[in-house]
Amino acid sequence: MDLDVFVAAHRAEWDRLDALLGRRRRLTGVETDELVVLYQRTATHLSLIQSSAPDPQLTGRLSRLVARARSAVAGTRRADWRDVTRFLTHSFPAAVYRSRHWWVPTALVSTLVAALLGWWIGTHPEVQATIAAPGELRELTRPGGQYETYYSSHPAASFAAQVWTNNAWAAALCLILGVFLGLPVLWVLFQNMLNLGVGIGLMSEAGRLDTFLGLVLPHGLLELTAVFVAAGTGLRLGWTLVDPGPRTRRAALAEEGRAALGMAVGLTVVLFVSGAVEGFVTPSDLPTWSRITIGAVAESAFLAYVYVLGGRAARTGGTGDVDAAERSASLPTAA
Predict the structure, then answer these.
(1) Taking 60 as the threshold, does the pLDDT of residue 332 lie above it?
(2) Nearby residues of 175 by Cβ (< 8 Å), 6 or more positions away
(3) pTM of this structure
(4) CB 3.0-4.6 Å disulfide test: which of 15, 54, 178, 307 passes with 237?
(5) Which CA distances in Å does 94 have to 179, 301, 313?
(6) Cβ–Cβ < 8 Å for 220, 232
């Protein structure tokens, strides 16, 4: 492409588009139609220049011009409560439902790993000796020890906020690090299962496994499910780089990445609920069966939410991705 000839041939169209965008008065119908046509042409010109004869100054000018024109053509709008409602009842549950083939196996395998680690630690005194000194282990596992007082060591509200922040950060890490082929996600997940396995093993060896499970299950059912969803989605995002399917790798990563970001927001809400249970229910004086029942109800409600609302949304085409009108413009490319 001869860039000088190309610029000379189309400069008048770009200047005209710039002039229309700069009008302070309302455009007439004819001018609006002209603006749309010029916007489409200029977007094509920009794509041709980028692929055939990239010039930084010209590309910058046309990029700004196309962005202004797109804003004028597509318009802008502010998010309102309808967007929040649609996200919570359609986009988020659809995204979780679609990724169930990743997070359900992740949950099953992770739970098995935690159980095996707990068995290994609980049946091998030499392993326990590497964790802490005998006196420290007794302080952890005795009635009224650190495993029990941990959940009531701070005021309920501040403890719930701290737990929520920590868990939301762990979930976000799983989603973000998935882009690195999912390998860091496996490490984050293993660290969580190792901590759980240590608690299971030490309390089991002390003959107090029922006490430990009575403290963990009320909030842990929903909390770990959220972590498993985040980890499974992160692994799926990493696999998208390996096998994007019929989509281009860039398009697949963009689509799954946008859905993952939305899931990060939704999981923050889920972890807020589990944090509230951990802060207010787990350390309460309620009977153990009552606390576990509350946790089971919260877990069942979330699974029903995913499989009923999410399944329905997925069957109607919901993916968790943002609406097409809200995505960045995709410029045509030269053949």
Answers:
(1) no
(2) 230, 233, 234, 237, 260, 261, 263, 264
(3) 0.72
(4) 178
(5) 21, 16, 5
(6) no
